[in-house]
Amino acid sequence: MKALVISGGGSKGAFAGGLAEYLISVCKKEYQIFIGSSTGSLLVPLLSIGEIEKLKKVFTSVSQDDIFNNCPFLLKKKAGVYKTKINHLGILQMFLEGKKSFGESVNLRTLIFKNISEEDFEKIKKKNVIVTVSNLNTLEVEYKQAKDCTYYDFCEWIWASSSLAPFMSLVTKNGFEYADGGMGNVVPIYQAIQNGATELDIIVLRNIETTKKKNLPVRNALDLTSRVFSFMLNQIVTDDLIIGKLEGLNKKVKLNFYYPDKELTSNSLIFDPVLMKQWWDYGYEMGKKSNPQCKVISIA
């Protein structure tokens, strides 16, 4: 049983989309399990039913305003490089309204409902599609299968899985508060194996090279919070990979890993359609590079 696993990674999900397009459209890979965390949860539902063009259109045109209705930071582009600073007015507004996070991503929820129709969902729930969420009340990771959900609930689980608190919305469902699945499990390899996968294609949205790049000094409290979260998520990714590899070795499961071989961005909460189009194409090219035998299929 084959599984496609896509990690968290915010805007870098565009790379995963391009790579998945190559695996599915050119290599003709047929997966019985689709499982994602965070941005991976945005990708796997439409990938499972072959709606790649629709997915590509979204991931290569989405902007900051499509994600945030209240972004906690302000962007300024200088010499092709984005700089961020605290959106003091926006954060103050959140506090005055009694909100629990620095920013709000209700626009992302709207985008999900707009691009996954009820007709799409009827097809999706016939597949084994799983999204990862973090329950902040029980401090546990939960896995939501499309076949066990209603259309409304599944779209909201996708939203919860891809909302990185405290920068994005805190999602309340069934009396519990949920946030980004990557806060608990960035690369859900173990869960795919527990669901019966015997061969996994795993797209990990971080550099294959673990370079020790020195970041610029922290500029403000929001930058510090972001830096701390990046550190924590990096450690979670490392742990997920170790656990997944050990479980794969123990159960003799074949694990195929795919990574970008360069750094895409230092801030995956910046959504630039021009860059994301480049990353989608780069992911497609990485698929070619990683699977040279599929070139014959593409010519035929």
What is the element layout, followed by pairings?
Blueprint: E1 2-6, H1 13-26, E2 33-37, H2 39-48, H3 52-59, H4 64-67, E3 73-78, E4 81-86, H5 88-96, H6 106-115, H7 118-124, E5 128-135, E6 140-145, H8 151-161, E7 171-173, E8 176-180, H9 189-194, E9 199-203, H10 221-250, E10 254-258, H11 273-290, H12 294-299
Parallel strand pairs: 1-2, 1-9, 2-5, 9-10
Antiparallel strand pairs: 3-4, 5-6, 5-8, 7-8
Helix pairs in contact: 1-2, 1-3, 1-11, 6-8
User: What structural class do you assign from the helix and strand content?
Assistant: alpha/beta
Give the N-to-C terminal Cα separation: 26 Å
Largest sheet: 8 strands, mixed
Spell the H/E element sequence.
Answer: EHEHHHEEHHHEEHEEHEHEHH
Number of helices: 12
Mean pLDDT across every amino acid position: 87
Radius of gyration using CA atoms only: 18 Å
Uncertain regions spanning at least 5 consecutive residues: 296-300
Shape: globular
The number of strands is: 10
